[in-house]
Amino acid sequence: QVQLVESGGGLVQAGGSVRLSCAASGRSFSTYDMGWFRQAPGKEREFVAAIKWSNRNTYYADSVKGRFAISRDNAKNTVYLQMNKLKAEDTAEYYCAAGRDGTRRYGTYDYWGQGTQVTVSS
Q1: Spatial separation of the C-alpha atoms in residues 54 and 40, rounded to whole Å
Q2: What share of the chain has pLDDT > 90, as a percent?
Q3: Are 34 and 77 in contact, with CB atoms under 8 Å apart?
Q4: Strands 46-51 and 58-60, how do they pair?
Q5: For the chain, which terminus, N or C, has the lower number of CB atoms within 10 Å?
Q6: Which letter, b or e, does each residue of 2-27 get, where b requires 16 or more Cβ atoms within 10 Å of its Cβ?
């Protein structure tokens, strides 16, 4: 069992930056792939970024590539999402997720946090 708690969201101006954190509790965090997803009002939850536990390879949605960076600190049981050059369309609830074989697909993650809101003002 893995429990996830996101933090770091808030209101930020377009062009600004924010770093989200996701703290995990439970055993074997270091052996879970971690992902970030987001959901805007009236839209489906969409993939943002993922990091594999085995080789720390990272994957990004085209819409955030070059602006966002995912990282993890296994010693702290935490995964981060550094968000730069934010745009109004990045406004959403952001969720972190853990899965044994996490990919871009929502269904490949077993555990989810409650989400943290990021609002980008233009």
Answers
A1: 31
A2: 87
A3: no
A4: antiparallel
A5: N
A6: bebebebbeebeeeeebebbbbbeee
